[in-house]
Amino acid sequence: MNAANAYAYFPGCSLHGTACDYGQSTEQMCERLDIELLELEDWNCCGSSPAHMVNPWLALGLVGRNLRLAGQTGLDTVVLPCAACYARFKETQHALKDPETAARIEYVAGGAVPSDLKIEPLLGVLGKPEIRVKLHDYQQRSLDGLKLAPYYGCLLTRPSEVAQFDDPEDPQSLDELLKALGAEVVSWPGKVSCCGASLPISRPELVWRMSGQLLAWAAEAGADAIVTACPMCHSNLDTRQGQIRRAGLGDYHLPIFYFTQVVGYALGLDESQLGIGRHLTNAKGLLGRRRPVVTQAG
């Protein structure tokens, strides 16, 4: 294993279930970029929304156990594709700064929890200079002519003192990534607005309005698609467009991509390898429309 490009990997529950296309495209993309992901053995759910709303100590302990597993890999960085998982990991790491709180977390986690691991979103890894060089060298397809709306959601960059990733109000990491692949990034007001998060069961009408507003903003900006790094955001924006139409809140048919799918396609992967056919809102063929092929560097 090349330690320089190797990371402890926490996929989270969604990437093994409802967002398996995100998990599939993550693994395929990282393999193309020579990024080694060592999935934590016997990892558990981070608690996401349910645990920290019901029992905050359980939520912290769940992540604490995962941090223990990450520490046992011998790698100094744990990478998370899911914005919700990233938020929970960073919140727990922040809480470990207080000795009394750390002791309680370790009690729930069943042992010492490392506080010095680097915790990075997968999107952040792709911003590293050495990975950007590989993106340039390995790119096989340009996204020239494609207008994309980068969508960070509300968990990836906020609260800023905890997340410590990009600008909380006007992040640029996904913007720059899409531009590097040749896409036109549209300016729109929804890039860090909430989609309704985990409320589609308890407050579906609220989610329809909030996600519908995001779709409206992206459509008004001329976007061909929205690109996100969050399974929850993808679910609300992709799967609820029919509900939004039936509620009379807008007639949208806007493809929603994970950033790993867009990057993977630019690297030469097929749509079937990236799970694009699993989307409820049809996204097939959009990435390949009118895109010239880039000659791969030798």
Overview of the structural elements:
This protein is of the alpha/beta class and 298 residues long. It folds into 2 domains: 3-122, Glutathione S-transferase Yfyf (Class Pi), Chain A, domain 2 (Up-down Bundle); 124-278, Rossmann fold. It is 44% helix and 10% strand. It is built from 14 helices and 8 strands. It has helices at 20-32, 48-54, 56-71, 83-95, 99-109, 122-125, 129-138, 160-163, 173-180, 204-220, 231-239, 241-246, 259-266, 271-274, and strands at residues 6-9, 36-39, 77-80, 118-121, 147-151, 184-185, 225-228, 256-258. It has a 4-stranded parallel sheet with strand order 2-1-3-4. Strand 1, helix 1 and strand 2 (36-39) form a beta-alpha-beta unit. The chain is globular. 48% of the residues are buried. The model has no long low-confidence stretch (mean pLDDT 94).
Task: Please describe the structure with a list of short key phrases separated by commas or semicolons.
44% helix, alpha/beta, four-stranded parallel sheet, 298 residues, Glutathione S-transferase Yfyf (Class Pi), Chain A, domain 2, Rossmann fold, 2 domains
Briefly say what this structure is.
The chain is α/β, with parallel strands linked by helices and 298 residues long.
Q: Give the overall shape.
A: globular
Number of DSSP-assigned strands: 8
Total domain count: 2
Structural class: alpha/beta
CATH topology of the largest domain: Rossmann fold
Helix-strand pattern, N to C? EHEHHEHHEHHEHHEHEHHEHH
Main beta-sheet strand count, sense and barrel state:
4 strands, parallel
Share of helix, binned: 40-55%
Count of DSSP H/I helices: 14
In whole angstroms, the N-to-C terminal distance is 24 Å
CATH classification class of the largest domain:
Alpha Beta
Radius of gyration using CA atoms only: 19 Å
